[in-house]
Amino acid sequence: MNKVILMGRLTRDPEVRYTQTNNTVVASFALAVNRRFVRQGEERQADFINIVAWSKLGEFCSKYFKKGQQVGIIGRIQTRTWDDDQGQKHYVTEVVAEEAYFADSKREGEMGANTAFENTFGNSSMPAGGSDFEVSSSDDLPF
């Protein structure tokens, strides 16, 4: 099984590219993920992990993720190699994002992620009860 769950801060705004063959969106960025333990007398250390998001998820990340923002990423580790113009072989290990989430709290005075989403796609509010189901009285329950 190849599954990665990360939470960290973006080290830069996502960089967007498009594939040459079918013009698919590819967003790439790095997350600074704090290590769990800190040795006494040392500063907290972080790992800088490269993330790649494809297609619709790539569009989402490029539109809503910004440098310094805390996000959660679920994906898989992938390694790849390529030869540059001088014939030198390069190796890369990165996380291919399958899901992406906002992890920052909504700060006062800032436009939060939900506001941006609602401005783009509209407000899809739930019914007053918070559910599609309505219970008229406890007598109707089968238990």
Summarize the structure.
The chain is mainly beta and 143 residues long. The chain is 13% helix and 41% strand.
Low-confidence stretches: 111-138
What is the global morphology? Answer: globular
| Domain module tally | 1
Number of strands: 6
Largest beta sheet: what is the strand line-up?
1-3-4-6-5
Distinct helical segment count: 2
CATH homologous superfamily caption: Nucleic acid-binding proteins
CATH architecture: Beta Barrel
CATH fold naming: OB fold (Dihydrolipoamide Acetyltransferase, E2P)
Determine the structural class based on helices, strands and strand pairing: mainly beta
Helix and strand string, N-terminal first?
A: EEEEHEEH
Distance between the termini: 41 Å
Describe the structure.
This protein has 143 residues and is mainly beta. The protein has one domain (4-122): Beta Barrel (OB fold (Dihydrolipoamide Acetyltransferase, E2P)), CATH 2.40.50. Helix content is 13%, strand content 41%. The protein is built from 2 helices and 6 strands, in the order ββββαββα. It has a 5-stranded mixed β-barrel with strand order 1-3-4-6-5. The longest helix is centred in the middle third of the chain and has 10 residues, at 55-64. It is globular. It starts with a strand and ends in a 22-residue tail after the last helix. The model is unreliable at 111-138 (pLDDT under 50).
